[in-house]
Amino acid sequence: MQAIFSILDHSLRRNVDQERVIGTLLGVRSEDGQDVEIRNCFAVGHTETQEQVEVDMEYQKQMLSLHLKANPKEVLVGWYATSAELNTFSALIQNFYGGQGDGTWPHPAVHLTVSTEAGKDIEARTYISAPVGVTAERAADSAAFIPVPYEIRYGDAEKSGLELISGAKDREDRTTGVLTDIESLERAIEEVLGMLDRVSKYVEAVIEEEAPPSSALGQFLLNALALAPKVNPEDIERDL
Q1: Beta partners for residue 114, in sequence order
Q2: What is the value of pTM for the model shown?
Q3: pLDDT tens digit string along 82-91?
Q4: Which of 76, 112, 212, 226 could serve as 80's disulfide partner, Cβ 3.0–4.6 Å?
Q5: Are 139 and 145 within 8 A, CB to CB?
Q6: What is the C-alpha separation between 178 and 191, in angstroms, rounded?
Q7: pLDDT class for 66, splitting at 50, 70, 90?
Q8: Residue 137: alpha-carbon gap to chain centroid
Q9: Distances from the Cα of 119 to the Cαs of 17, 88, 122, 170, 173, in angstroms?
């Protein structure tokens, strides 16, 4: 989630004449290289016209070197752009990030697109690429982008921050107050009670044969209940 926030901030600070901004993605890979977790990113300057694109590759290499020294567990995984469009310039940049030496080779580079159009929902897409059978002169700016599945994850602290920010969306002044510890606890208890109510209604509907049963959901609920600590009411009264 931190990477998404950084990308959105980069988009807000772009020049008026820029349709999109780009940057480098960093993270970790699974041992087999099949799964990638994007943990961080940094902006890379570039200029783009209808005829050509220029990327500050020297800056990218220096920033990447500094970041890897500060975070030795992370590696280069790909790049991002704040536009869903895939064009010849996208293929050119993709081939640079996926190349040998300073690129992600032998692993494919991940390309993350994040739409940042005002007034519309934020939409993210992820791709890897495969080479296209073209002439040697066109190999550098040619690539077939292949969509791959993704999942946006966030921690408890990020979730709390997002919930706090979302509380201002329906206010005219777009502001919201910070909750006290008691208010946060009250809201958390209300959310738990709401979830318990939904689960109870679902179980009742299944018993009454008003809803189809799900063995997977039943197993999930059973596992969740098994994690609940067994506490005697007397112990709770004594602690209070």
Answers
A1: 124
A2: 0.69
A3: 988 888 899 9
A4: 112
A5: no
A6: 18
A7: very high
A8: 35
A9: 19, 28, 9, 14, 17
The owner of tokens 């783009």 is 48
Q: Averaged over 202-213, what is the pLDDT?
A: 88
Alpha carbon distance 162, 115 (integer Å): 19
Q: Which two tokens stand for residue 105?
A: 């080779």
Supply φ then ψ for residue 7, to 5 degrees: -65, -45
* φ/ψ of residue 81, rounded to 5: -145, 145
First-residue to last-residue Cα distance in the chain:
38
Average of pLDDT values for 106-112? 93
DSSP letters of 220-233?
Answer: HHHHHHHTS----H
pLDDT at 240 over 70: no
β 123-130/144-147 pair status: antiparallel
Distance CA 42, CA 125 (A): 18
Please state, in angstroms and rounded to a whole number, the distance separating the CA atoms of residues 68 and 103: 13
